[in-house]
Amino acid sequence: MGTPFAFFALSVVRTERIGRSLMRVTLGGPSLEDPAGGFRSGGRDQRFKIFLPRPGQDRAVVPVEAGEQWYARWREMDPEVRALMRSYTVAAQRPGEIDVDFAIHGLRGPAARWACATGPGDPVTVLGPTEPDNAGIDFRPPDGTDWVLLAGDESALPAIAAILEWLPGGTRAQAWIQVAHATDVRWLPSAADADITWLIRSGAPDELVTEIAAARLPGGRPYAWVAGEAATVRDLRRHLVRGRGFERRASTFTGYWRRGATEEDLLAEHPS
Question: How far apart are CA 253 and CA 237, in angstroms?
């Protein structure tokens, strides 16, 4: 498995509010219709990078000509000029279009503000996969997995939804999804034997951890995929690995965001 990625010049096709906490932005472009060398999502928790213009710019400033050295070149650029870079999940892909779901979070972040203000025709630059089996997919249950545990908050909802849709029939899955409002709850299609628990955030600490800790889990060899706020993911990893005996190497734990930190803060901490 390599890392086949390329830059794609896309534009906004439409936007749609899906629940109180999520805005869906549909992107389109000819490169999404090219079956060879175009944008090719592998499904599941397929992530890609989206580059947004700074205030006053009509398009994102990205070193697309730098090839594999794009990240080093982007880091060298003036932070006040270079595009804002964010990582997102492909919520769905159809010929000529991809859907991206943005957690609004009270419009505190620049990506949320962009998603709510953008409209058809606005240009967008993304860095996405050109092969369906790529390093932007983390959901990889090992052979011999008997059942799957999924858990996360709004930021992980697009990935959880895509994973559930990807799972083959007969797969046993238990999912816990924490959202801010009852209107964020929606039907998630899946051929799997999936038990989905929705948690409406009440403000109490560690609600997701407490709910899973109290749950009766199936027997057999599990695979856990957990994503969302970093501290919650850490606590769930500790509970599942130390408390429940999950194999650390046979699970995926990803902090999508950290309370009180921007993505720029996280990039500064982990520059490579």
Answer: 7
Contacting residues for 230 by C-beta, under 8 A, at least 6 apart = 255, 256, 257, 258, 259
Q: What is the pLDDT of residues 119-139, one digit of tens each?
A: 999 999 999 999 999 999 999
Q: What is the pTM of this model?
A: 0.93
CATH value at residue 98: 2.40.30.10
Instruction: Say whether pLDDT at 107 is over 80.
Output: no
**Nearest-angstrom CA–CA distance, 207 and 160:** 18
Contacts of 78 (CB under 8 A, 6+ apart): none
Q: Please say which residue of 101, 135, 169 terminates a domain.
A: 135
Domain span at residue 55 reads 5-135
Q: How far is CA 219 from the centre of its chain?
A: 28
Sign of the alpha-carbon torsion through 153, 154, 158, 162: positive
267 part of a folded domain? no
What span, in angstroms and rounded, lies between the C-alpha atoms of 175 and 223?
12
Q: Residue 222: beta bridge partners?
A: 147
Determine, yes or no, domain membership for 263: no
